[in-house]
Design brief:
single chain; 181 residues; alpha+beta; Aminopeptidase; 28% helix; globular; binds coenzyme A
Length: 181
């Protein structure tokens, strides 16, 4: 996902207090989850499985260090029968009330099962609880499926970011204003 340089810059700022610590009992009420499925916060022990999904999903995967750093944010995994099938990493700005979805991926063998939909629903629920007002993400403009997925949640394209002219890489910056509940 996205121009990671930009993400890292923004997320290199200290994570907002409570971004992780108060998420210990993160929302699991995704209505149609059966008992073998869960969405929970990622731990260090999940990183090997996450790295493998990342490698299968992106041309430029993250390394272990980046994922380990992301554990201090809102980093969710979708688990079925003790197997990690997908993940979503978000971080919150230390100043202000915005958050960034840095990465989302689902194992290729399990796509189309609404796992990403459930992960996004869960992270938005959590970010609302944290009184985050705006969520941002960057998506490669060629990823129509991912763009449609975000649009279903109300994300809208705010601008186009051209990151690498030589490699012809361009991303949409998409944002979603979270309602207060
Ligand atoms: C994008 C991704 C996370 C979607 O995961 P998923 O669990 O298969 O997605 P879901 O089953 O929840 O799909 C929900 C919606 O997303 C859209 N969508 C997802 N993948 C799509 C695809 N390949 N083509 C078209 N639409 C797609 C559809 O609108 C779908 O709605 P529908 O089920 O009503 O048709 C997954 O394909 C993936 O890991 N891709 C590689 C990594 C990546 O591109 N991540 C996003 C980076 S910006």
């Amino acid at each position: 996902m996205g121009p990671l340089g930009t993400f890292k810059q923004e997320c290199a700022t200290p994570v907002a207090p409570g971004c992780r610590s108060s998420g210990a009992s993160i929302c699991l009420e995704v209505d149609d989850l059966n008992p073998q499925m869960s969405i929970r916060l990622a731990t260090e022990g999940d990183l090997d499985a996450i790295l493998e999904i990342d490698r299968l999903s992106f041309e430029k995967p993250w390394d272990y260090t980046k994922f380990a750093a992301a554990l201090s944010g809102v980093f969710l995994v979708f688990e079925e029968e003790e197997e990690i099938l997908g993940f979503l990493s978000a971080c919150c700005s230390a100043v202000g009330d915005n958050a960034i979805i840095e990465k989302i991926a689902v194992h290729p063998d399990h796509r189309g099962r609404r796992i990403a939909t459930r992960l996004i629903a869960a992270v938005l629920e959590r970010l609302r609880e944290m009184r985050i007002r705006e969520v941002e993400l960057h998506v490669d403009i060629v990823k129509r499926g991912a763009i449609q997925l975000y649009e279903k949640f109300g994300f809208a394209i705010r601008k186009v970011l051209t990151v690498d002219y030589e490699e012809n890489e361009a991303f949409y910056e998409m944002t979603l204003a979270l309602d207060k509940k």
